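Follow-up to my post from last week.
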Amino acid sequence: MKRIALEVNHLSYTFPDGTVALKDISFSVREGEKVMIIGPNGAGKSTLLLNFNGLLRGKGEVKIFGEPVTLENLKKIRSQVGLVFQNPEDQLFMPKVMDDVAFGLFGRGFKREEIEGRVRKVLKELGLESVAGKSIHQLSLGEKRKVSLATVLVLEPDILVLDEPTSGLDPGCRRWLINYLQKSDRTMVAATHDLDFAWEVGETMIIMERGEIVARGGREEILGNKDLLESHGLEVPVLYLLERLSPRSG
Amino acid sequence: MKKPVFSPDSRVRIICLAVSLTFVLSTFFPQAYWKFGVFLLCLLVVFFLISPKSIRSFRNFCRLSLFLISLLLFLVAVTFIFSPENFRNRLDRSLDLTMKAFLVSISIFVFILDGDFADVIKGFYLFRLPASFLAMLTFAYRYSILLQEELVSILRARLSRTVKRRSFLEEMKITGLILNQYFLRLFERSERIYAALLSRGFQGRLDFLVNFKLSQGDYLFLFLFSSVIAAIKFI
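User reply:
Got it. Predicted complex:
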């Protein structure tokens, strides 16, 4: 039986202006599991993700591999939970691609040669060698998204957390990202509106609405349930319908 | 864009700028007016040597010069009118200040702004400047472009919804509201950037991967430039 990688117990979060973002959220993610958090705008998906590595701290408990997220262990937790933000412009703050990818490795006891080696390896893995020496503002959105992913992957986190990973991507980049994440055996939690992406990558689905978990289950159980999805402002993914209509599925 | 004739290491650029500033600030215009002229000529030669061969770069150089000249002429007039000294001293002081300001700006353009600014930041990093100064410089460079894009998008949105001419007061009111929105957006963005910094382990220090190596050409360039400036200064 695989270990529990992420555990959320009775988590609630209220913004300083009084807006309730999360209400008594509880769920767990096993090691290697790919969980998709879906729901309409304002459901609290991004707020939930920010609680995973202590960027926001609500009432309740978040545990990473059994260890509660506290102020004392934030450094360790943040090296275990790699968070890729929705907007790469917010995530990429160094002037050049190489420096941005290397940023998290400094201060972790690596030698410069080792840092450079790791950075080059990740850039090669993501097909970014040609942009290694470029400035961030010279990249396309798809390239920025890939570099954002590289900045997190280079730290080799145990849990990959993605906030709207396909938003604004062209079909080619989106396909590349789906293929990459499908092949990865890392524990993953992604918040997304893109239900076709969720269908292709996710194993477990969580539907959130107004700060609450309203449904949780396997991908067919959730994404195949038209009434459930429509009652929460979502639609059955096109890929699910196509798979059902194809001759192979009978 | 063609490559420059010679591309100096960013540390060489920084030292050359320091040499230029020392020269300009320690030389006084009325006593040796020809020195500033020869120095400007040197800067032009250096510009053509180290700047990428693009029309854009040269156009920027000319635009900057024209802008500075018009701005400085205004300053000359102000200094001249309000100085309590006699006519000759007033003229000397105005011309001295004007020439200094002009040459300092042109030097910064030639050695810093016309090259890759990211490399200049790395040069400062190698000179071990304080971490907070480097972080400030890095963020200013990275986000100035982004903030400019954001401002352009807000102004475009305004233009696309403007159908009739408004009175001056109405225009000012709308501009105020736009600026309000702009600063709110900047505030939100800065919060998100800070969250991203923390998420990736920021502890107040930025480090860079630097593979700069000083070549013989760099040493030669630095020696020649410093020698010429010293010669102009002490002849």
